[in-house]
């Protein structure tokens, strides 16, 4: 299925990929059930093609929206400005994403600065009369203040509902200012999962920023990432390749040359799926279709495929052999030190698949994992990118594999049933609960921490560090009360309320 | 960069200093064992939590805030067909799952735009005796300061209810700092409660760890009076309580920092409450004795430190801390005010009174204050301020970190957002808080010296 770049509005993940946010079972079953999306349903499912079954319950806690993901991508482009066309509440995100931006810049040895994000600050009267005049004013302010190379506009729930013509204003201002002015449609209510926000940003970049008549740079590789430390430069230098990091911390010039690269890679297919497939479709930049670069099997295959696509096969084997040998001694020690430990992964979808493999390389037992959503397939529709099947086929099943979009109330019994020694985590909100249950968490702020060969060692060392924190968390656990009723804490099935005969409704019927 | 003369105020706000009304979910979760329920898009609760309570002193979500908060996470269907059914279902499930004394339902842009009748939905539960209230806090309707008063009023009107019984003399309800938005609110409320109890009052502190939760809120109408300790926040609540319960209020705009201001504040409150003179003076005497012992020790440093201390300051922040700090820095430390900018967009009707406070900041010092919300303009104004021969010390937020470097000055993050401070029980007000503030100011200065 072709990605449609003709319209300014990105198609949501659930429409394109059949994304779900709620599921519970064995990883192998989820992998099998996702097979319909790979077009192999007849052979594996034994039934006609169908969508993944999703369990929706009445109780939900605050999640995350697409606009936040736009902020953490388009808001982190160094010589662009992001305008949040919204009431001031959406502007709250400027605080966290500024802090991440600053620390990300520091981590890459780039000059530290505040991000350039402006909120149009819509008020009640704008809901009645429309907010496009304010949008236009803010675009002018952005221009006068920064003379940016591009201006991005994030829409909001409010502007989506009142129907502001953001595309019209953007197009008019683009003509006037002679820089790309890019509307990113990311209303929170339009998609059930925030990762649609990544796609919205990438959609806008491909449509309006990327150079349309590329001059190929045969040694340039696009790396779609966030703000992680610069581990790709030395790794790709082994093949004589240069790195083009996008979207976060990139310049508009970096984005323009996306179409000129020899290949596109990422650290996580959840993030890179849309842009990588789009660049291949529109500009013939090949996306590396391989397992993600985690653990030996994944990294070997990924590196070989990158070498093959960029015609540097002969250099790959030497690097692979060298790295295997280099990390072997410490890996042996780490496996001894981590023997018998149980880990739990609770991160974004494809990233979790990567982390599970690293944990298993370290000899850590993984019986449970939580992903915030599940894409049955990525935009390439290529089975070589089936990151969940890669885990199951190479490292075995995960018996308690759960899809839950950051629902803390479910996390309690998810942890109870596997009782891990530690958790790996990225998004906020779950680790505090684990902490109150006595379980330490390793928050992986640097998304590259566990990637590649060195990543196996890095993660092992970090786990040793956080296991020591156990003293803190266990002390806390014995002095804390959770905000959930005992009835709920006693439930073994975290999805009980989503089941047909759930106690909420049956009791309701009794009373009625 | 254009001159400030060319930079006019527009609707644009970059580097925000307040958020929207639904962030008043923090005013609910700041009451022990109270949990907010938000009826809004999927990102609203997380946005408010991560920015107001996390990357602002890393305060944490507490019992019922953060990722605990139930949210309808409205979808397109709820926009098209309305979200009342979804809210009803969520409340029902929340009652089953969460262990709380009171739910506070807050609405977001979506619900307020599509016109959900949230009041009717909540009323169904109230009629069944469920402790639950609601406030309409759509993001376009106001900021988290006005949202705070909406939530406060919702709890008073829909939960505390009518009262015409006797009053308890020497009991006070305190309305002061905005919970969570003010990075130091927990420690500050603790200190304010401590000193008010010190002079013999019983204090309904209402928010924070020292509050007894909803039982304390139930006692609001029994108090002798309300004390509004802030330039304007809480005045609406106090006026409402005055008309609802005929309960008088005392308004003290300056939150006291340091012995001078704190003692004078306590005397003012004591006079209003009609407290016995002697025990009040005895408490003040003891507190001042301790305070000035420490100040004597501090004077060795303040008088003798070789390598220079800042002589002028700027404050950028909401009016409560802005005014409190300016008073303290001018009157007790003798630092010269350079630029004061108030950033929370106080309602127009309160602004003249606030300006007047700055005009009489000391007997011999008058200063001016400006109201700005857009950090771009705020920073321009500070750049164009003449701080004299020495770099200033800026009392501001994370947004001023780079500006302070640019001016070769020092930065003390005292308000939202304070993303490079960890704040637990630290307080900057009263007798004890003033000492912590001195430590912070001059540790910052000394630490940067070599």
If you had to describe this structure to a student in words, what would you say it looks like?
The complex is a heterodimer of chains A (512) and B (450). Chain A is of the alpha/beta class and 512 residues long. Chain A is built from 23 helices and 13 strands. In chain A, the strands form three sheets. In chain A, strands 1-11-10-9-12-13 form a six-stranded mixed β-sheet, with helices on both faces. In chain A, strands 3-2-4-5 form a four-stranded parallel β-sheet, with helices on both faces. In chain A, α14 packs antiparallel against α20 and α15 runs parallel beside α20. The C terminus of chain A is likely disordered. Chain B has 450 residues and is an alpha/beta fold. Chain B has 17 helices and 13 strands. In chain B, the strands form three sheets. Chain B has a five-stranded parallel β-sheet with strand order 11-10-9-12-13, with helices on both faces. Chain B has a four-stranded parallel β-sheet with strand order 6-5-7-8, sandwiched between helices. A three-stranded parallel β-sheet of chain B has the order 2-3-4, with helices on both faces. In chain B, β12, α16 and β13 form a beta-alpha-beta unit. Chain B is globular, with a radius of gyration of 22 Å. The two termini of chain B are 32 Å apart. Classes of the chains: A alpha/beta (512), B alpha/beta (450). Chains A and B meet through α4, α5, β3, α6 and α7 of A and β1, α2, α3, α4 and α5 of B. β3 of chain A pairs antiparallel with β1 of chain B.
Rounded mean pLDDT of chain B is 96
- Strands across the major sheet of chain A, in which order? 1-11-10-9-12-13
End-to-end separation of chain B: 32 Å
Q: Which blocks of ≥5 consecutive residues of chain A have pLDDT under 50?
A: 41-49, 507-512
Task: Name the chain pair whose interface involves the most residues.
Answer: A-B, 77 and 80 residues
**Structural class designation of chain B:** alpha/beta
Give the structural class of chain A. Answer: alpha/beta
Molecular shape of chain A:
globular
Q: On the 0-100 scale, what is the average pLDDT of chain A?
A: 94
Into which percentage range does the β-strand content of chain A fall? Answer: 5-15%
Distance between the termini of chain A: 49 Å
Oligomeric composition of the shown chains: heterodimer
Secondary-structure element sequence of chain B?
EHEHHHEHHEHEHEHEHEHHEHEHEHEHEH
Report low-confidence residues of chain B grouped into runs of 5 or more. none
């Amino acid at each position: 299925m072709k990605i449609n770049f003709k319209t300014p509005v990105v198609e949501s993940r659930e429409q394109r990929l059949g994304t779900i946010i709620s599921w519970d079972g064995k990883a192998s079953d989820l992998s099998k059930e996702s097979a319909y999306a790979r077009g192999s349903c007849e052979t594996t499912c034994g039934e006609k093609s169908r969508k993944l079954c999703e369990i929706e319950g009445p109780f939900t806690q605050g999640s995350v929206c697409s606009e936040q993901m736009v902020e953490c991508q388009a808001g982190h482009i160094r010589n662009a400005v992001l305008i949040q066309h919204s009431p001031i509440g959406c502007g709250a995100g400027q605080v966290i994403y500024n802090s991440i931006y600053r620390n990300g810049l520091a981590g890459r040895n780039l000059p530290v600065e505040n991000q350039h994000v402006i909120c149009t600050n819509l008020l009640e009267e704008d809901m009645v009369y429309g907010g496009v005049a304010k949008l236009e004013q803010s675009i002018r302010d952005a221009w006068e203040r920064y003379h940016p190379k591009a201006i991005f506009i994030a829409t909001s729930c409010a502007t989506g509902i009142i129907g502001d013509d953001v595309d019209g204003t953007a197009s008019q201002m683009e003509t006037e200012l002679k820089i790309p002015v890019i509307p990113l449609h990311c209303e929170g209510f339009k998609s059930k999962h925030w990762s649609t926000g990544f796609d919205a940003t990438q959609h806008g970049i491909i449509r309006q920023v990327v150079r349309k008549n590329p001059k190929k740079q045969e040694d340039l590789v696009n790396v779609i990432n966030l703000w992680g430390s610069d581990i790709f430069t030395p790794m790709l230098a082994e093949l004589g390749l240069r790195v083009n990091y996008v979207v976060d911390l990139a310049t508009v010039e970096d984005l323009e040359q996306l179409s000129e690269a020899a290949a596109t890679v990422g650290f996580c297919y959840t993030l890179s799926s849309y842009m990588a497939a789009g660049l291949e479709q529109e500009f013939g930049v090949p996306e590396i279709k391989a397992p993600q670069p985690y653990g030996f099997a994944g990294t070997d295959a990924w590196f070989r495929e990158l070498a093959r696509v960029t015609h540097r096969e002969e250099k790959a084997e030497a690097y692979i052999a060298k790295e295997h040998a280099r990390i072997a001694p410490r890996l042996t020690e780490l496996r001894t030190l981590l023997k018998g430990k149980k880990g739990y992964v609770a991160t974004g979808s494809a990233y979790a698949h990567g982390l599970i493999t690293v944990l298993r390389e370290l000899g850590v037992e993984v019986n449970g994992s939580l992903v915030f959503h599940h894409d049955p397939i990525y935009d390439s529709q290529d089975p070589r990118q089936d990151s969940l099947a890669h885990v199951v086929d190479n490292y075995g099943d995960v018996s308690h594999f759960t899809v839950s979009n950051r629902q803390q109330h479910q996390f309690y019994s998810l942890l109870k049933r596997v009782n891990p020694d530690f958790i790996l985590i990225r998004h906020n909100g779950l680790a505090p609960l684990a902490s109150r249950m006595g379980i330490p968490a390793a928050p992986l702020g640097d998304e590259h921490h566990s990637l590649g060969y060195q990543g196996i060692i890095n993660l092992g060392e970090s786990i040793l560090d956080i296991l020591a924190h156990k003293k803190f968390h266990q002390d806390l656990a014995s002095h804390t009360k959770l905000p959930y009723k005992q009835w709920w804490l006693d439930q073994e099935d975290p999805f009980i309320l989503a089941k047909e005969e759930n106690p909420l409704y049956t009791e309701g019927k009794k009373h009625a | 960069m254009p001159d400030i003369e060319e930079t006019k105020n527009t609707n644009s706000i970059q580097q925000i200093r307040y958020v929207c009304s639904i962030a008043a979910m923090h005013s609910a979760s700041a009451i022990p064992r109270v949990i907010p329920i938000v009826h809004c898009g999927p990102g609203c609760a997380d946005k408010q939590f991560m920015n107001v309570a996390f990357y602002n002193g890393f305060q944490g979500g507490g019992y019922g805030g953060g990722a605990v908060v139930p949210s309808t996470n409205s979808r397109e269907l709820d926009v098209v067909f309305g979200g009342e059914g979804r809210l009803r279902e969520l409340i029902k499930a929340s009652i089953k799952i969460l262990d709380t004394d009171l739910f506070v339902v807050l609405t977001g842009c979506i619900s307020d735009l599509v016109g959900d009748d949230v009041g009717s939905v909540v009323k169904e539960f109230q009629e069944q005796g469920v402790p639950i209230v609601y406030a309409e806090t759509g993001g376009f309707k106001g900021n988290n300061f006005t949202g705070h008063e909406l939530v406060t009023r919702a709890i008073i009107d829909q939960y505390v209810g009518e009262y015409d019984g006797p009053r308890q003399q020497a009991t006070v309800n305190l309305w002061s700092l905005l919970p969570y938005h003010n990075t130091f609110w927990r420690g500050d409320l603790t200190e304010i409660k401590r000193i008010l109890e010190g002079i013999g009052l019983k204090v309904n502190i209402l928010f924070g760890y020292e509050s007894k939760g909803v039982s304390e809120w139930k006692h609001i109408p029994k108090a002798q009076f309300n004390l509004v300790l802030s330039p304007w926040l809480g005045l609406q609540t106090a006026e409402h309580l005055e008309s609802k319960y005929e309960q008088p209020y005392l308004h003290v705009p300056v939150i006291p920092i340091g012995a001078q201001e704190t003692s004078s504040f306590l005397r003012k409150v004591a006079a209003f409450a009609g407290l016995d003179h002697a025990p009040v003076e005895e408490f003040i005497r003891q507190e001042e004795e301790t305070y000035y012992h420490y100040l004597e020790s501090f004077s060795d440093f303040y008088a003798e430190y070789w390598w220079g201390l800042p002589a002028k300051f700027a404050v950028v922040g909401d009016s409560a801390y802005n005014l409190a700090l300016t008073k303290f820095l001018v009157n007790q430390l003798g630092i010269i005010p350079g630029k004061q900018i108030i950033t929370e967009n106080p309602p127009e009707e309160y602004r003249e009174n606030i300006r007047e406070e700055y005009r009489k900041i000391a007997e011999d010092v008058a200063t001016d204050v400006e109201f700005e919300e857009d950090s771009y303009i705020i920073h321009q104004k500070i750049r164009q301020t003449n701080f004299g021969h020495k770099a200033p010390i800026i009392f501001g937020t994370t947004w001023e970190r780079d500006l302070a470097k640019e001016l070769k000055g020092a930065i003390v993050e005292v308000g939202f957002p304070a993303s490079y401070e960890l704040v637990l029980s630290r307080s900057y007000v009263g007798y004890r808080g003033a000492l912590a503030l001195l430590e912070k100011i001059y540790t910052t200065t000394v630490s940067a010296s070599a």
